[in-house]
Amino acid sequence: MGKRFTACICLLFFIAPGLNAQNLNAENPFRMSVRFAGTVPHPVSNKAFRRSFTGIYDIGASLNFQVFRGILVGIQYQHNLWKIPDNKIPGLKTYGQSHHGGIRVGYDYVINSIAVGYAGVSMLSGRMKFYGISYTPDTTRPPLETSFNYRMIQLEAGVYFYTEGNFAIGVHAAGSFTSFAFDPYKLYLDQHEPYLPADLDGNVSYFNIGFSLVYSFLRKG
């Protein structure tokens, strides 16, 4: 997976300068854009979450409006999926799924006639829901919890290349920092795997690497 992904990125940068696209001149000539990012999330903290779950995918979509030269504001939706694999806790079919929505502020920098670099920050709120939990009921402890609300700040950066008309493809990287203090005891995961108190320190954070698609419209002037 990692080698194929690296090869695809290298190929994208190799072919991009020869793509047939409009001339951006000194600025992005479009007022609005729809952006899509498909990435794979990699957990960094907290340790209990990192020991338990592997990221399957993270999908983001946003509608952006250029308010000043290069400055964009918009709305964003984020969805991701996590799984407990056999190499972490064998035998479980547990998934975590989240949905988030919020606002995005970004900056686009025109590199040349077809390439645009970008950076952005999104402030989102949403919910994580866990499915397929296997446990033995225990009346001596708090009841099972499977749904958690939290907020998230996402920092992103990347570059995209116009390939044909208003359409562009690119590479995308992001870091997500949440207010979600994951606790495996609330999911009864400690019945399958031992955890230390230090494993619960910190909130869940992760980074994403993947591809982006951009469709721009409402040309200026």
Keywords, please?
disordered N terminus; 8-stranded antiparallel beta barrel; 221 residues; 55% strand; mainly beta
Provide a quick synopsis of the model.
It is built from two helices and eight strands; from the N terminus they run H-E-H-E-E-E-E-E-E-E.
Q: Can you lay out the helices and strands and say which pair or pack?
A:
Blueprint: H1 2-15, E1 30-45, H2 47-52, E2 54-68, E3 71-83, E4 95-110, E5 115-131, E6 147-164, E7 167-178, E8 205-219
Antiparallel strand pairs: 1-2, 1-8, 2-3, 3-4, 4-5, 5-6, 6-7, 7-8
Could you characterize the architecture of this molecule?
The chain has 221 residues and is mainly beta. The protein has 2 helices and 8 strands. The protein has helices at residues 2-15, 47-52, and strands spanning 30-45, 54-68, 71-83, 95-110, 115-131, 147-164, 167-178, 205-219. Strand 2 and strand 3 form a beta hairpin. The protein is elongated and about 70 Å long. The model is unreliable at 1-23 (pLDDT under 50).
